[in-house]
Amino acid sequence: MLLLVISKILKAKVNFVKRTHKIQYGKITYTDLDVPAKPFFSKKYRISGKPDYIVKKDKRYLPVELKTGSYDRPQKNHIFQLAAYCQLIEDNYGKFVPHGVLVYSEGLQFNIPFDPKLRFELQNTVNEMRRIIKTGKVTIDHKDTFKCRNCSLKEYCNYKL
Given the DSSP bridges, would you call strands 99-104 and 60-67 parallel, antiparallel or unpaired? Predict the structure, then answer.
């Protein structure tokens, strides 16, 4: 009887978290929000990362990434981050990932297809990042000071806004 009560309490807590964070229906198989989780690594792409959640739905694993900010459409950098998580899940679980989910703090949710075009763009972006790190040559593609301040490649960049 005690186990049944504990089970119901835990289920209620999980459902509360899912509603609060607008998590897709399905079983949460991984989370990096409440307790730091082990990162995934791709030998093929030599990338690593930790999605906020992985939800198993209809025998498929879907990465879910929570983002703060007020956006009416998915941001390109968020899409690439999610694409990397899709690739990491495929490489680590050996299962096809059809899409990932971006959830913004104001409740907007976007399913981002992990289609051949996004896979190709992800590979090109990873290759370009490696080229920049290897050569130390960066070209700027924006005029946004906020991006410059928070850029992970700013130590290689000769441009300052």
Answer: parallel
More confident residue, 65 or 5: 65
Q: How far is CA 80 from CA 67, 144, 146, 161, in A?
A: 13, 19, 18, 24
What is the phi/psi pair of residue 3, to 5°?
-65, -35
* pLDDT tens by residue, 144-157: 777 787 777 777 77
DSSP state of 15: H
Work out the angle between the directed axes of helices 116-135 and 76-93 (0-180°, nearest 10): 100
Architecture of domain 27-114: Alpha-Beta Complex (3.90)
Q: What's the one-letter identity of residue 82?
A: L
Distance between the two ends of the chain, CA-based, in angstroms?
64
pTM score, whole prediction: 0.77
